[in-house]
User: Which sequence fits this backbone?
């Protein structure tokens, strides 16, 4: 545990208590062994003049939605201390009313909600208060003799309190326990199964105490030989059957969640080590590292057996029993799907509606698995009873969020594959799909595709779509990274040189057929097994206006595109029974692609006696067709608007008189 305080850095904030609070909060937030994804909170007490020039004591406390690692001054709403201290004296207060009362005591009504532990921060009579969910301390707490061990380790200068539900109940409990204590006799508070509080009148001292306390726990774990040292990471999921099983798991979780959900396989050294524990079933189903994690991960993971999909169903049944055993009137049961799973011998899985959610769950899991393995070497892993976990999972504040849930993007949680994605229509499709909430495997033969998209929602994969082995490698990467496939945009193509039929060179003809027709059959046939395990799966072929209205000298291109269209029609017939929709788009005159340089545009416009602007809009609607227009229609075809359409051929050409 590194003390990251630097006097030279802190000197820039001398005399500004709030900026010092921001500085040390970020130091805490930089270390994931202290706080994870919004966990932990910090505060500073400041006396300042109000609008009436009266002195007022305020608590600046971390606000809801802010992360300590990146928090700014705006992330610390100011709450009147006198109101918070009065609230602590109440006999009873629901957490909903607590949040309301805290908001009425804020000096800026536009600031975020104060932490639910604001009252507790107010009760501690020091200027700076730091609170973390330090892994090492909570690991020791989650052992059979956790409290005894912690008292022996830290001695009389540490207050150690039993676990109490966060919010008003916790604040009231601490208030009652500390009525007659001399606070100067203590360096901190450990809340069993929850975390650590430190405090001081100087920012440096409060922060340093936190580091010292956690470092002491880490040193104890190491001295007991309980450190976790996993081996190397290896890839163990390569067989097509295993990949299809992974896609089937993801599909079943999506069905139980009532939404498309991503699934990512982790084969990190720690995930592999954990998945190979002989007592996996016992240690993985005790409960989370801290109760706060239940909001992200549920109480326990699913343990996948010989039939992983059946194990997901068994988890859902057990979750319903868990809810029924602990529920009180008025509670709404969450979806019964797991948020993560352990696949024995293979690794861990996490499920979420987006890449950010996957990352949060995986971070929590990695820390939890490490702590569980350490605790097992210290006498065994013992999390809180399920009733305590349930109370936090079904906290009234969390239930209220369910009623305010924002509408998800149309393609949220969907997994797409786009070929020919480095430029033009393919590139626009990738951008539109991620804007609608999907994640995308962007395939192209151009090696630039691997670094082209600056988004964690895109996997840029170099792939020759005419080569099956290259396709299979790309699909393996996609399935292990996102869990399945729902949308295929078969777009890769090339525009050959125009020539009359008698002048066509065999090489040009064969190349056009390979790229513009045969590759689409290879892509589709390779993807079908995964699409069958998809969520409302859809295939969109990008063909051409040349199919319904071919031109002189364009047979090399037009015949291939016509063959692709026929392939799509037959695919619609064959795949309908699997619930897979197959539709075709016929774009025309899409000029913002690589093949249409300024020189070519000017030459073609002169050929027709038109300006470039007139040439771009030479359709009935006198409108320019852009790659983004085609991409928007692709997203519509992949979404619920066209949920009952298959086998369609849709022009996007501004109205071509020859087609009409």
Assistant:
């Amino acid at each position: 545990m590194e003390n990251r305080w630097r006097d030279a850095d802190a000197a820039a904030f001398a005399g500004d208590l709030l900026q010092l609070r921001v500085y040390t909060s970020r130091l805490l937030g930089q270390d994931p062994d202290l706080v994870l994804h919004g966990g932990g909170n910090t505060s500073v007490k400041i006396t300042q003049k109000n609008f009436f020039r009266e002195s007022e004591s305020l608590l600046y406390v971390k606000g809801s939605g802010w992360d300590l690692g990146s928090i700014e001054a705006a992330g610390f709403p100011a709450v009147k201390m006198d109101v918070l201290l009065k609230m602590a004296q109440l006999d009873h207060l629901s957490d909903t009313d607590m949040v309301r009362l805290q908001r009425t005591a804020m000096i800026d009504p536009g600031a975020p909600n104060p932490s639910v532990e604001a009252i507790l921060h107010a009760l501690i009579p020091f200027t700076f208060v730091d609170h973390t969910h330090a892994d090492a301390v909570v690991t020791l707490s989650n052992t059979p003799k956790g409290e005894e061990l912690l008292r022996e380790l830290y001695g009389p200068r540490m207050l150690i309190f039993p676990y109490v539900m966060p919010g008003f109940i916790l604040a009231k409990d601490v208030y009652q326990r500390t009525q007659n204590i001399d606070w100067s006799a203590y360096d901190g508070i450990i809340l069993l199964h929850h975390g650590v509080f430190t405090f001081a009148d100087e920012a440096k001292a409060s922060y340093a105490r936190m580091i010292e306390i956690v470092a002491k726990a880490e040193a104890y774990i190491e001295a007991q030989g309980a450190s976790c040292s996993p081996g190397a990471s290896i890839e163990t999921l390569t067989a097509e059957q295993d990949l299809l099983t992974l896609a089937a798991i993801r599909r079943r979780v999506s069905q139980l969640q009532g939404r498309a959900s991503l699934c990512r396989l982790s084969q990190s050294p720690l995930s592999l080590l954990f998945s190979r524990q002989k007592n996996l079933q016992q240690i993985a189903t005790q409960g989370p590292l801290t109760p706060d994690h239940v909001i992200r991960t549920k109480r326990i993971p699913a343990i996948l057996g010989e039939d992983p999909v059946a194990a997901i169903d068994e988890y859902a049944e057990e979750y319903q029993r868990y809810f029924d055993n602990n529920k009180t009137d008025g509670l709404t049961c969450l979806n019964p799907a797991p948020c993560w799973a352990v696949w024995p011998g293979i690794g861990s899985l996490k499920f979420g509606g987006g890449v950010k959610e996957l990352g949060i769950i995986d971070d929590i899991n990695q820390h939890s698995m490490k702590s569980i393995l350490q605790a097992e070497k210290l006498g065994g892993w013992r999390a809180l009873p399920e009733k305590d976990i349930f109370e936090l999972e079904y906290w009234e504040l969390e239930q209220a969020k369910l009623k305010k849930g924002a509408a998800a993007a149309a393609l949220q949680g969907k997994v797409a594959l786009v070929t020919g994605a480095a430029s033009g229509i393919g590139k626009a499709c990738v951008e539109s799909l991620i804007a609608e909430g999907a994640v995308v495997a962007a395939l192209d033969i151009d090696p630039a595709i691997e670094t082209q998209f600056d988004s964690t929602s895109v996997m840029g994969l170099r792939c020759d779509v005419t080569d099956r082995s290259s396709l299979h490698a790309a699909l393996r990467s996609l399935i292990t990274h996102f869990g399945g496939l729902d949308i295929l945009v078969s777009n890769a193509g090339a525009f050959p040189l125009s020539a009359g039929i008698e002048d066509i060179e065999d090489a040009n003809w064969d190349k056009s057929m390979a790229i513009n027709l045969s590759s689409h059959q290879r892509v589709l046939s390779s993807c079908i097994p995964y699409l069958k395990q998809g969520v409302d799966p859809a295939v969109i072929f990008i063909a051409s206006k040349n199919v319904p209205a071919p031109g002189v000298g364009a047979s090399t291109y037009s015949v291939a595109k016509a063959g692709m269209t026929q392939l799509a029609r037959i695919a619609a017939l064959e795949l309908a029974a699997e619930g897979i929709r197959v539709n075709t788009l016929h774009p025309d005159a899409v000029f913002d692609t690589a093949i249409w340089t300024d020189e070519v545009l000017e030459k073609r416009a002169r050929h027709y006696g038109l300006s470039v602007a007139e040439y771009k809009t030479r359709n009935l609607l006198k409108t320019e067709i852009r790659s983004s227009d085609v991409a928007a229609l692709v997203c519509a075809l992949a979404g619920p608007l066209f949920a009952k359409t298959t086998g369609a051929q849709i022009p996007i050409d501004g109205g071509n008189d020859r087609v009409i």
Notes: The longest strand covers residues 41-49.
